[in-house]
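re: ur question from earlier - yeah i can do the single chain one, its not a big deal. heres the input i used so u can compare w yours
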Amino acid sequence: MNENSSSKHPIGLYLLFVTEMWERFSYYGMRAIFMLFMVKVLLLNDEEASQIYGSYTGLVYLTPLLGGYLCDRYLGNRRSIFVGGLLMAAGQFFMFLSASAGAEGGIPLMWTGLTALIVGNGFFKPNISTMVGQLYPANDRRIDSAFTIFYMGINLGAFFSPLICSSFSDYKWGFLAACIGMILGLITFVSLQKKYLVTEAGEEIGKAVKPLDLKAILMIIGSIGIIFFMLNFKQWFSSDVDIISYFIYGSMVIMPILILTDRSLTSQETKRILVIFILAFFVIFFWGAFEQAGASLTLFADRQTNRTIGSWEMPAEYFQSVNPLAVITLAPLFSVLWGFLYKRNMEPSSPTKMAYGLGLVALGYVVIAIAVKGLGVGEKVSMWWLVGLYVIHTMGELCLSPIGLSMVSKLSPIRLSSLLMGTWFLANAAANKFAGTLSALIPPSEVTPETHFPQFLGFTITNLYEFFTLFIIMTGAAAGILFFLSKSLQKMMNTPSAS
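and the output i got, formated as tokens:
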């Protein structure tokens, strides 16, 4: 390990911190108002809005595979971040135009905005994190704390963005605020990158690998066209076929087959990779339930949560700031907890921790199910029930999300590490698409003789208690099965360091 005598971090880390903070401000600010914008301004029904939400957030986790490839082959980190930031700023501006146009002409503008946001995220997301590690010599003892600081930037942006973007009387100004936030981050990055994004030896990091050629340009244009086509497939062809679901879920089946049939894998490598895929399957249920925060839970907060404090009614979108605030508060406590248990030889294995994460998500839904049981039409629950759900879910996130990322890096053969990390994020794509499908099952808050109640596996969901019970059963069962398998999975991992 490099015992660098300096405990100070390079200024470049704080430049990346600020850039990522503004990008997360843009993403989470838009995410906070997206569902209510579709329902209230574009006049889409809950099911349509939920499916679009799932398609958007699902594709956001797919495009980093393309962005990472183009970065490594052509663009370099700096240019990739610039291209990604520019596309995302343009995407937020199209969302502003969509909100300005309203229900009559806003939907085509929304598809354009979502396309730019999805592709832009693919260039931005995988590259700014990579640059953090490049600032330091190999095995520098400061790297872990550097990523901790960087992670705080993510959560700081995610915390204050819903508070700002949802505070306007018109959603278009929220999208414009998200656009301005992205532009501020981009200006900061471009103006200071040459001076501060350097190693301690003074070498610039993240420079372009080679000039763009026709192949790379066609890949960028083609990816934009493919995403736009998939988002508009139903509108253009009046079809009930959800092509995005086939694309995402199909990739989840094909990728493991392609990797596990690699003849160069040893028996031990195959077992460890199989553990990654098994846990990735359970991750889909976790994030499918967790990501209701931006979908059905936002609708619930808006319609059936008492948000009145004195004479002020808190915007429903403010609840999405609870999770990042809880992460900032609880993450250090969980770090201390794992260290405390490790010293006493009591620390749970990675699969067991992830089972606890699923169990905590189920517990969060138990809390909100208790709150809504017997809730009549037009009645509302105290906001503290929803706050409690978000805090419990954050505890589940801290048991699963960082543990999963660490586990993938430990178990992956070096030659396949990037591909397997991309496959892990593919599970997040499937989970977010699944979250949109589940959100579409939320029952209507107003019942008329013409009301159509959603159905799931032959069961009709008529009220919120039944809706939230679905998540309790799903995540509770997944937690129980994973807990039962955890010892076997740990044996398959077969390495003390991969705990």
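The chain has a mean pLDDT of 90. not sure if urs matches, ping me
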